[in-house]
């Protein structure tokens, strides 16, 4: 049974909670405002947070504070996202869900995919997201590449791009689309990254990259 904790009460989150509690393999174990949630010890494998209720500068810090080993963080947000989506990805969310009736009906399916370690992007704005992510990546890529060089990780330019997007939680298919290369080529780059970093496994690589820039 997957335990789910919901943060920030409103009609949309009420519907999410009700849908989850109708499932046989998951249950909502808590449902509070974010001010109450911050003071609690949360025992849940998944935390769903309505980001729209947060002050603009609070959400990334709260998400980072909620992140624990194997815990999934799902951000719920209205359209349009603007720059906040990039901040959410970089703060460590495992998925972003847009507030639509369709996603209320699909919430159990979405949570099962996330629980299986898939990063779920909202279909409603994938192309817009990719465009903005690429724009943000061009700003941050030089800093990321500097840290790679500083740690003597001799990645090629494309391997560096791939590692950067892996760290943001992108799947191979999404990385291929972003870099305009074949998914098989992404797999080749990832294998090379494993070899050059001396570790194997996506989670271990992401952890190493995160440690590198702290």
From TrEMBL:
PANTHER family, alphabetized: DNA-BINDING TRANSCRIPTIONAL ACTIVATOR DEVR_DOSR
Which SUPFAM superfamilies does UniProt cross-reference here? C-terminal effector domain of the bipartite response regulators
Q: Which organism is it from?
A: Virgibacillus indicus
What PROSITE patterns would the database entry show? HTH_LUXR_1, HTH_LUXR_2
Q: Which residues form the HTH luxR-type domain?
A: 148-213
One annotated GO biological process: regulation of DNA-templated transcription
Q: Which CDD domains match?
A: LuxR_C_like (cd06170)
- Which keywords fit this entry according to its UniProt record? DNA-binding, Transcription, Transcription regulation
**Highest rank taxon of the organism:** Bacteria
Q: Which GO terms describe its molecular function?
A: DNA binding
- Give the taxonomic lineage as stored in the record: Bacteria, Bacillati, Bacillota, Bacilli, Bacillales
Q: What is this protein called?
A: HTH luxR-type domain-containing protein
């Amino acid at each position: 049974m997957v335990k789910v904790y919901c943060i920030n009460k409103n009609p949309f989150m009420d519907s999410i909670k009700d849908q989850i509690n109708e499932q046989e393999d998951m249950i909502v174990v808590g449902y509070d405002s974010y001010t109450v949630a911050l003071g609690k010890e949360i025992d849940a494998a998944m935390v769903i947070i309505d980001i729209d209720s947060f002050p603009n500068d609070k959400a990334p810090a709260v998400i980072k504070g909620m992140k624990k080993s194997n815990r999934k963080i799902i951000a719920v947000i209205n359209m349009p996202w603007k720059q906040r989506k990039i901040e959410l990805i970089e703060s460590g969310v495992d998925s972003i869900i847009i507030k639509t009736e369709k996603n209320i009906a699909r919430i159990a399916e979405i949570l099962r995919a996330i629980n299986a370690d898939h990063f779920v992007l909202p279909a409603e704005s994938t192309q817009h997201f990719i465009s903005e992510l690429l724009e943000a990546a061009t700003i941050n890529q030089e800093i990321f590449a500097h840290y790679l060089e500083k740690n003597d990780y001799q990645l090629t330019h494309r391997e560096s791009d791939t590692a950067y997007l892996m760290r943001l939680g992108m799947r191979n298919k999404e990385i291929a689309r972003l870099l305009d290369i074949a998914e098989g080529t992404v797999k080749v780059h990832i294998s090379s990254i494993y070899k050059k970093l001396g570790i194997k496994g996506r989670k271990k690589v992401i952890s190493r990259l995160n440690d590198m820039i702290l």
